[in-house]
Amino acid sequence: MIIEGKQYDDNRQKLSDVLPIASPYVVEIFPWDVCNFKCFYCVQSQGAVDRTRLALDSFRKIIDDLAGLGHYKQIYLCGSGEPLLHPDIVKMVSYVSNAKIADSVDIVSNGSLLNKELSDSLLDAGLDRLRISLQGITDEDYQKSCGVKLSVDSLIENIRYFRRRRDQGHYPCKVQIKIMEEMIRGREALFYERFTDTADDIRLEHLSPYNALENENLDDYQSSKYGMDLGRMEICPMAFYRMHIKANGDVFPCCTSTYYDDCLGNAIDDDIRTIWHGEKHKKLLLQLLKKEKVTDIRHCNGCHDFKYLSTPADCLDNHIDKLIEKYEQLSMR
Fold this sequence. Notes:
Elements: E1 2-3, H1 15-18, E2 26-29, H2 56-69, E3 72-77, H3 89-99, E4 102-109, H4 116-125, E5 129-133, H5 139-146, H6 152-169, E6 174-180, H7 181-184, H8 188-195, E7 201-205, H9 238-241, E8 242-245, E9 250-252, E10 265-266, H10 272-276, H11 279-289, H12 306-309, H13 320-331
Parallel strand pairs: 1-7, 2-3, 2-8, 3-4, 4-5, 5-6, 6-7
Antiparallel strand pairs: 8-9, 9-10
Helix pairs in contact: 2-3, 3-4, 4-6, 11-13
């Protein structure tokens, strides 16, 4: 199925109708910010990444804390690294899957390390969704975009094996493939020809300002990452329903803030409940709603990334007064 002009989740509630929420809808956990690619648009190509590897015991502690906080729509194992490089990735998938705390346990991967053994193990571990980010559609594309020699034909065959094994074993895991349109502009037809029958869902995404080659004028962007009309959202909704946990345990309100030092707490040293319901997080949300200078997560000041990563259902702009009242009541407890 080709997906255009929408996010993966078709059943998104209006965020303003459900806030405040007892636990985040989406949790992204970074197993290891090490990658076998050096994509030109990624921090990996700049060498400015934390090489900390998340220990399995620490991962289990994080999942246990999350289990005590609530239930989640999605738990991602992803980050600016390649999660399949982590030696305990199968054990991590198994642990969070067996905890039964999420509607979907996902891995976001470049897919280059897939083989028969790993495919079998991930499916047996209970993976719900494998999202593969392509960096090209030819061997030459991969050499140019991320400096690696990779056989796209072999990559396709490994993905097809994953799906065959999935179907034979009646596993529910979905396979999704995505690529940034800017990587293949003018060759979209070839992309669809090569990959449409390789995955359950396939889509083109769009470069966002934080991973674009240059600092283009924001007005040049007319569509979001997902191809939808941008609109002009003023209030960042991401901190209200997401949590991002780096391999060193630091907790952030969004994916782009993880590149900076300011964090909400540490999921290895602290209880995640105290971070999500803590005063630092509440203060951040109220400062965003009131359009005040954010004092603890300084990356939020002047950030426009949320406009390219959000959907109309997430817009909070017309509900500011009501939400301020609700979060001020929470802060008084």
